[in-house]
Write a structure and sequence with these properties.
Elements: H1 4-22, H2 27-59
Helix pairs in contact: 1-2
Pfam family, one: Exonuc_VII_S
InterPro entries: Exonuc_VII_S, Exonuc_VII_ssu_sf
Protein name: Exodeoxyribonuclease 7 small subunit
Length: 80
């Protein structure tokens, strides 16, 4: 289950991208929307970094080494 803050920030980022791609915003509205998107992207990055740290802590071996494994996520086209 993903963090609700991550989900909220991701939704805000997606909304900003959709608005910007529509081409219907004024220059000033586009700038504000872009700023909101950058802020949301930073929130997503912070949440993902936090999750990565938690996963690394869970994978840490008793000798202090971190056991790593590649994670593969499929995009909408079924590609890695």
């Amino acid at each position: 289950m993903q963090d609700p803050d991550f989900e909220k920030a991701l939704k805000q980022l997606e909304d900003a991208v959709t608005k910007l791609e529509s081409g219907e915003l004024s220059l000033e509205e586009s700038l504000r929307c872009f700023e909101d998107g950058v802020r949301s992207a930073r929130q997503c990055r912070t949440a993902l970094d936090s999750m990565q740290t938690r996963v690394e802590q869970l994978l840490k071996k008793s000798d202090g080494k971190i056991e790593t494994a590649a994670l593969h996520f499929d995009d909408e086209n079924g590609q890695d």
